[in-house]
Specification:
Number of helices of chain A: 4
CATH superfamily of chain B: Cytochrome c oxidase, subunit III, four-helix bundle
Number of domains of chain A: 2
Shape of chain B: globular
Structural class of chain A: alpha+beta
CATH topology of chain B: Four Helix Bundle (Hemerythrin (Met), subunit A)
Distance between the termini of chain A: 92 Å
Largest sheet of chain A: 5 strands, mixed
Radius of gyration of chain A: 28 Å
CATH class of the largest domain in chain A: Mainly Beta
Helix content of chain A: 25-40%
CATH architecture of chain B: Up-down Bundle
Shape of chain A: elongated
Helix content of chain B: 55-70%
Number of helices of chain B: 5
Strand content of chain B: under 5%
Chains: A alpha+beta, B mainly alpha, C mainly alpha
CATH topology of the largest domain in chain A: Immunoglobulin-like
CATH superfamily of the largest domain in chain A: Cupredoxins -  blue copper proteins
Oligomer: heterotrimer
Chain lengths: 281, 212, 590
């Protein structure tokens, strides 16, 4: 005992710390296994892949977390002293160190590969042909959604045609024949269950971010860029869209609604009816 | 106490040989440190490293934006080459000053230092004149990205050359009051290093701005 | 042989102002940095208390605050612009003016000459200058809160074009933002002066026998951090220069064509907002290691002292810090996975980011290895160095989620990120700083801080930090975005309301516990138990050879000579359970 081998004194401080670590482990197990609060209910294809990556990392880090915090608590409880006894003097174990280093590197490499497969499926895979298309524009502090309408062709837009009163947020040239059936909807977006939708993201002023939590979609909208993100909804219903990049005082209220229709006909009807309402028919 | 006036022998030229094995603590005024380079020399190199990173940041921005499709190159007035030559000449005169002090030729030292100062001031004035010329001919800060970068890069550079002129003034005061000799000229050596470095930075900048 | 009181280095007696205010003595300058940083911590902390108030009870009326801050609380309800300016200033003040300042500025200044065996820094006047420029930068950043329009609202990250368009993009983006940029420019200059001093001093002024591999880990961490600063901060300065030209000069470095602001089409053309992010994060990522590395160094040394056991694998601790520093320059893109940056780069940055987990893991194993077989003396400093390990591990592990680009798509800009960086960049360094303060307070002031209050501070803080920041992981998983004035605006965030209240109340409790620390600190300077010996903790490093408090000139007539590394605790065959670095070989048996 006195020469540094074997356990030290059990102290109150040591036990208290070990107890804290135990409480920490128990609470985290509860939070991450019982999941009283968790991800919003999944509603897209890619979202499932993202959730799998999260789960994989969770398992690895969970084991590491419990292991390290547990060992920390155990050691602190076991190896107390009064400042007068000698501890052990050993301080190197190259084999153990190399083993732990290589082990960590291997685990990290596996995680990288798993994650990269999903990343590639999102960024290096084209949307299937025949996908819906929407041009989304963020501005301080609203979202506008430009649909090409039945002809499938987007009407010409020009920044000089943008009006101050919100009637033409993207500067659609109504004189362009292709623009006749285009709908520009503010803060309401529609998609169709089981059908991929290609979103072209733009911004009029500062950086915003297109965030659909249930779809696990997030992509910054950068002025001067036109960025493509596509998704395939798996459930019908209403979903919230939020801005996820600080864009000014009104950042918190850049909310929009995504309505996932059951059929493409429903979406087309919505486009026609909303256009009719806007043009005052 | 100014920064660059450490008259340390260790790492300088000449002076008694260092104790072997290395000993001492390297404190100010105390026996030689076991580190082979003097305190001021280390400080000067660190300063140049920081400045290099500043220009690395600015020029990496240039390189990134150089690729935009709307890039519009400007034509720089020929004065820019004249200024460049003046700066190169000032490095040469500084180098001649260094050689003079190594040979204890104090009259020549003061002459070359004076010439360096004149050339240095001529460079900065020449840059200001260049900006005036450009503005008069419609090449403004905001005209194109290329002109914006030129003004910013040459401006930041001129600020640092001006700092070098202050150092040069300090060294000149020492030269004129007889405090520099072949046995002790660390301030001059360090100031020259800084000066050559800023000259090198200018060559890098001008080549980047004109040919890239 | 030490004289009881350090003989005054041959200086005339200095008056009060030269001795305690305009001093060039590194110890005084270190204490000045410490107290200034503590003041900034209080301000930054108060700002976050206001934020937590809003997050727990969004859009609640607060009549008292309405009277105190009529503009920020117009109609007794917090203004949304004020909320995001709080976010911006809290982050800015804490990252730079607290953490960088206290770890590098305060501990660096106080400890470097003492631990390497020198009388002062290489350039004492430059050192004093760096403090006064730092103080000036503090005054400038605080003034941003009070100008017309208020403080900027772009976050501490100040993304362009929001930060480049001036008042048009939001209140506070005019004068407030200009002051913000000025303060950071001054801070950068102060930091570069300091960094220059640190590297020069550590390299050239080590005492006889103090080879690099005999340096305490604190010194290695300060050296590496100073080098990181010299390489990274100038890039921030470059970005700030370009931003200033965009704001005031009409240039278009970060502003593309086609921007419509206040219904006007701006005439800029050619710039790229992502360029700001690249420059900022090229600086920003090394910056977070500038914060954590000195914390790791100090925590390691203090842990070893109170475990009465050498740090496990000193060499690997040094190499891991060096590799962390080097790797920190090639991971910056992990802040930009969804920014619109090329997805190919996204893949590259995931790989480099997960690589940086390896040296951090090595350090964690080594800390555990140090405690294994130890005989821990549970002082407050010891408790904080142990607590450091726990919070660092918690924070570090959540980084693995964020470094995996696919998972980061969802987690980016959520409270999961907030939890991660607070634990690893705020709480862990804070715990290390507390360990350092309780540990070196006797050396600074000749008195002890009260240990009982210290322990109350520790246990309260340990529980408090986990109560505040652990739930944030869950809140983030629920999708809660950052920098959101009113979470209840979103249906999907309503289930998080209870947790937000829990976090806020915990935060208020945690802040209250810090008051105990502040009282303990300041009262103990004047009334703490006096230290009766040079080396009350029985530690091995050189500063403990000097009196408590250390006098001017540090080491008496003769500088110390070093014969061994800094970790000879519990040496078999030695008379004591510690052997100072100055004891020659064989001397430990006597």
């Amino acid at each position: 005992m006195a020469d540094g081998n074997g356990p030290g004194r059990i102290t109150i401080a040591g036990l208290a710390f070990a107890f804290m670590m135990l409480v920490l482990i128990i609470i985290s197990l509860w939070l991450f296994i019982a999941k009283p609060w968790w991800f919003p209910e999944l509603a897209s294809v890619r979202g499932g892949d993202i959730d799998s990556v999260f789960t994989a990392v969770l398992i690895v880090t969970g084991i590491a977390f419990i292991g390290v915090q547990g060992v920390l608590g155990y050691f602190v409880a076991r190896y107390g002293g009064r400042g007068t006894e000698k501890a052990g003097y050993w301080h190197d174990n190259p084999k153990a160190e190399a083993g732990l280093l290589i082990g960590t590197a291997v685990i990290m490499t596996v995680l990288v590969f798993m994650g990269q497969r999903v990343w590639a499926s999102i960024y290096f895979t084209d949307a299937p042909p025949g996908s819906l298309e929407v041009q989304v524009t963020g501005e301080q502090f609203a979202w506008s959604f430009h649909y090409p309408g039945a002809d499938g062709v987007f009407g010409r837009t020009d920044a000089k045609l943008i009006t101050n009163d919100g009637t033409n947020p993207v500067g659609l040239d109504r004189k362009d024949p292709a623009a006749k059936d285009d709908l520009v909807s503010v803060n309401v977006m529609h998609a169709v269950v089981g059908k991929a939708v290609k979103v072209r993201l733009r911004s009029k002023d500062v950086i915003h971010s297109f965030f659909l939590p249930h779809m696990r979609v997030k992509q910054d909208a950068v002025p001067g860029m036109s960025i493509l993100v596509w998704l395939e909804p798996t459930r019908a219903g209403d979903f919230e869209l939020a801005c996820a990049e600080l864009c000014g005082a009104g950042h918190y209220r850049m909310k929009a609604k995504l309505v996932v229709d059951k059929t493409e006909q429903d979406l087309n009807n919505w486009v026609k009816q909303t256009l009719a309402q806007q043009t005052g028919n | 106490m100014p920064v660059l006036t450490e008259d340390r022998i260790a790492g300088g030229l000449g002076g008694p040989p260092r104790l072997d094995p290395p000993s001492g603590d390297g404190g100010r005024g105390e026996p030689d440190s076991s580190f082979p380079v003097s305190t001021s020399q280390v400080a000067t190199w660190l300063l140049m490293t920081g400045i290099a990173m500043l220009f690395a940041g600015l020029t990496s921005a240039y390189i990134v934006l150089r690729g935009v499709p709307t890039w519009d190159s400007i034509h720089l007035p020929p004065l820019v080459w004249g200024n460049t030559l003046v700066l190169i000449a000032s490095s040469l005169t500084f180098e001649l000053a260094r050689r003079s002090v190594k040979e204890d030729q104090l009259y020549l030292l003061r002459m070359w230092l004076g010439l360096t100062a004149i050339l240095g001031i001529a460079f900065v004035s020449g840059q200001v004149l260049l900006w005036t010329q450009m503005t008069a001919s419609g090449l403004l800060l905001t005209s194109t990205l290329h002109s914006s970068f030129f003004y910013v890069l040459s401006g930041v550079h001129a600020v640092h050359i001006s700092g070098g002129l202050i150092g040069l003034a300090v060294v000149s005061v020492k030269a004129w009051s007889g405090r520099l000799s072949s046995k002790s000229f660390e301030p001059l050596r360090l100031c020259a290093t800084y000066w050559h470095f800023m000259g090198g930075v200018w060559l890098y900048l001008i080549l980047l701005l004109v040919f890239a | 042989m030490q004289v009881e009181h350090a003989t005054e280095h041959a200086h005339p007696q200095l008056g009060f102002w030269r001795k305690y205010v305009f001093s060039t003595d590194h110890k005084i300058i270190g204490i000045q940095y410490m107290i200034t940083a503590m003041a900034m911590a209080v301000i930054g902390g108060l700002l976050s208390m206001l934020m937590r108030l809003q997050l727990a009870w969004p859009s609640q009326a607060w009549p008292a605050l309405g009277k105190l801050l009529p503009v920020a609380f117009a109609g007794n309800i917090m203004d949304p612009g004020f909320y995001v300016s709080l976010v911006t200033m809290h982050g800015t003040i804490m990252v730079f003016f607290l953490f960088t300042a206290v770890l590098t500025g305060a501990f660096g200044n106080f400890l470097i000459p003492l631990q390497i065996g020198a009388r002062d820094m290489a350039f004492p006047f430059l050192n004093a200058l760096s403090y006064w420029v730092f103080l000036l930068s503090c005054i400038v950043i605080i003034s941003a809160l009070f100008v017309a329009g208020g403080a900027p609202l772009g976050g501490w990250t100040a993304y362009a074009p929001l930060s480049a368009l001036g008042e048009a993009s939001g209140p506070g983006e005019g004068a407030g933002m200009t002051l913000w940029i000025t303060a950071l420019g001054l801070f950068t200059i102060s930091g570069l002066m300091g960094g220059l001093n640190y590297v020069t001093t550590i390299l050239t002024m080590r005492t006889k026998g103090m080879s690099m591999m005999r340096l305490p880990l604190t010194q290695w961490s300060l050296l590496i951090t100073a080098v990181l600063g010299l390489l990274a901060f100038p890039v921030l300065l470059a970005a700030a220069i370009l931003l200033t030209f965009d704001r005031a000069g009409g240039t278009s470095f970060f502003i593309p064509s086609g921007i419509i602001m206040n219904n006007r089409l701006l005439g800029n053309s050619g710039g790229h907002p992502l360029l700001w992010q690249h420059l900022f994060w090229f600086f920003g990522h090394p910056e977070v290691y500038i914060v954590i590395l000195p914390a790791m160094g100090m925590a390691s040394d203090i842990l070893s002292t109170f475990c009465r056991k050498p740090i496990f694998s000193y060499k690997m601790m040094v190499y891991s810090m060096v590799s962390i520093a080097g790797l920190s320059f090639i991971v910056w893109g992990h802040h930009m996975f969804v920014s619109g940056m090329s997805p190919f780069l996204g893949s590259v940055f995931t790989m480099t980011t997960l690589v940086i987990a390896v040296p951090s893991a090595v350090k964690t194993f080594n800390w555990l290895g140090t405690i294994w077989g130890a005989r821990i003396r549970f002082t407050t400093a010891a408790l904080y160095s142990i607590g450091f390990i726990s919070v660092f591990v918690s924070g570090g592990l959540s980084g693995i989620f964020l470094g995996s680009s696919a998972a980061d798509i969802y987690l980016q800009d959520t409270y999961f990120v907030v939890a991660h960086f607070h634990l690893v960049m705020a709480i862990a360094p804070l715990f290390a700083a507390f360990a350092g303060i309780y540990y070196w307070f006797p050396k600074m002031f000749g008195r002890f801080m009260n240990e009982t209050l210290g322990k109350v501070h520790f246990w309260g803080s340990l529980i408090g930090v986990y109560a505040v920041f652990f739930p944030m992981h869950i809140i983030g998983i629920m999708g809660h975005m950052r920098r959101i004035y009113d979470p209840l605006f979103y249906d999907f965030l309503k289930p998080a309301a209870g947790m937000n209240i829990f976090v806020s109340i915990s935060a208020f409790a945690l802040a209250s516990v810090q008051l105990i620390f502040l009282a303990n600190f300041f009262i103990s300077i004047f009334a703490g138990k006096k230290v009766k010996e040079n080396n009350p903790w029985h530690a091995t490093t050189l500063e403990w050879e000097t009196p408590c408090p250390t006098g001017h000139g540090n080491f008496g007539d003769e500088l110390p000579v070093v014969h061994r590394w800094a970790f000879d605790y519990s040496v078999p065959g030695a008379k004591n359970d510690y052997v100072p670095q100055t004891i020659p070989p064989g001397g430990e048996k006597v």
